Amino acid sequence: MAKVFNWQLGRDMDYPYEGSRPERQFCMVMDTNKCIACQTCTIACKSTWTWGPGQEYMLWNNIETKPYGFYPTGWDVQVLERLGPQDWQGDTYAGKTIFEAAETGEVAVNWQPDQADWNHPNLGEDEPTGVAGEETYIPDIPHADMWMYYLQRICNHCTYPACLAACPRQAIYKRDEDGIVLIDQDRCRGYQECVAACPYKKSMFNIETRVSEKCIGCYPKIEQGLQTQCTTVCIGRLRLTDFVNTPDKADARNPADFLIHTRKVALPIYPQLGLEPNVYYIPPIHVPPKYLHQMFGPGVEEAIETYKNAKDDDELLGALMLFGSTEKIIYSFDVRGGVARGYDRKGDELVAVPLREPELVRDFSYPTTLADGTPATGYRHNT
Amino acid sequence: MSDAITRKALLAGAGVGAVAVGAFLAGCGGGEEAPQKDAQLVARRVDGPLPVDDPRSSAWRGDGETLLALVAQQAAKPALAQVSVPDVWLSALHDGRTIAFRASWAQESAGEVDSLGVFHDAVAVMLPGTSRERPAITMGAPGAPVHIAQWRGSWQKDQDSGRRVSVPEIYPNYVRDLTPSELLPPRTAVLWAPGRAVGNPLSGLEERSPVEELLAEGFGSTTHLPRQQASGRGVFADGRWWVTIAMPMQRGQGLIDILGGLYWPVAVAVWSGPAGNRGGRKQYADWASMLVEA
Ligand code: SF4
Ligand code: SF4
Hints:
B: Immunoglobulin-like, binds iron/sulfur cluster
């Protein structure tokens, strides 16, 4: 195995191939706090890419309610359980990655879901932990004992993909121009090794064509400078499609780098698995840190503190306000005079979003006239 | 598009343990009588048609039938942890124009479907491509190709059911609304069957033989041969698969002719779908020597 550097682990790790980073790395940032699980993103993805026969169960994008929702069933607990202790020493991961913990003859710690595991995309939906008291629905605010949150899931277009590493035919490749991970539909022979090896279970088998498929990062849109379908349709405006640099090359004018590296408010999902996943999450503010620490690694509490402070942090607020403000990919941004602006690759302005809308208080009553012209006082309803 | 990650072969310790697997005496053979201990595989020359469509014909039995021990593929990852099919009976016949093999092995149940975490059974016969020398057992090596003919249980089921087995057969209670082909012209609708759109031979709708011919120059390099000439048939009965694989002796496509009166190396691999076998997770018999009768 080769040694590669994984910045999310703060150390070198074993990987079957030599490390070589793409020219640019596709990424997404999700603000879990804003999601309403409307699944508009899921439907946008499905109706764009996977409505063919054989793709019935395929959800390249899915929203699951944590902690009891999974698609496929138990995907994360299955791999976490097999992985063994996952300790961190500060920002350095002291446990083993799925590549390092692989059994003899295997590329990674893996788990092959069976057919029934793909049957319940809505398992655990809206189910909170704990039981509400009788007198009020949520007895303690903030929700001390009861919590749940929505997790937005797509393929992480990992820097060190397990799907790619496990394919005996080298049918999976990572594009140099944007780091998007694709399955060559011609080379694939349907062994489903990628399905077993991807700990996030974002590689899926097509029953009709008998080869595997996965999220393609909407690459035809990325090539045109556009954000993905799931991003642009998002009702909660909580998604950002962008490119991320490694921390040593971070550019604070780039919204993703700013959120991930400068403010450190967006964290990778299950970084301890060792794939250097490129979907980053702003953790839910009301969930016990112990749970979040397992899912997003160290830095969860600081991220939440920083996020809560956004109202007093114009730059952070500005970066968040740019989510869902334009279909175009925002390469850089700034915040001046209470306005956040996003720019394209050439530096041309794409969008300007005010941080705070002007406040307008309308009078409860107003002068008006009756049908016959008699002056009268009108009263606003529902204002 | 270029690969950001070097496609370095994943061969873990390239030297494959050459496992001596000659003929064996074993309890439960496919042939009624156990072959001689030092027996070798003989492709007997017969007149008249070869019983390719009848894998259980008594014509397949005889002195030249051999029991080959199978070992788990562990040279390349992902590997097979342990064999679930310990041996396979192999026999061969030819008529001067076509050579046909019959393989038989025991399994508890048949794997005839490709689905989510569900795999088909298969058997493959491997022959040297361009010389009579034994190529590397690792499916050949660059410059020393092997010719592989693989039969799959799923293709057999396709053929037996007269149509390509797909979602409605595997999940009879499935529900779905509109499909792309109900709404769009075929050339557009096929885009939602990406494997088919790019012409992957596994994905096509056209009727096909249950046997696929491949060329390989090492693990992971199998390539569908442009001209597919092999045929065969598999029958699952009495807890065993009985499978025939036939191909012309003048193979063409840059492959040398299989000539009678000579010894030829032949290797076999077996996959048990219910045991999770697929791709490199297979059991195989190292090169055996096969006398093709003059
Ligand atoms: S999330 Fe899974 S499918 Fe996507 S690149 Fe990573 S390993 Fe591959
Ligand atoms: S569209 Fe946005 S708000 Fe709706 S489920 Fe998807 S991520 Fe959540």
